[in-house]
Design a protein that fits this description.
Layout: H1 2-25, H2 32-42, H3 47-57, H4 67-72
Amino acid sequence: MNQHKKFESRQQQEVAAQHQAVNDTAQEFARVEDLLRHDAAQTEAPLSIAHRLQKSTADFPIAPRSWWQKLLGQ
């Protein structure tokens, strides 16, 4: 009977630890954009897509510096 109680308490502790781990990782986002940014930071693009994206954006013109960047020397 004692072993049965030990097993139940150990099992309850494991379940409680799993629930705590789930609660620790849960996040709430105020806006959809925040969720998308978080997801993008956590997810790596496959190499083939990353190379195609770099190749397609390489021809974009570089934006001119704004007046405040020129003023501050940045």
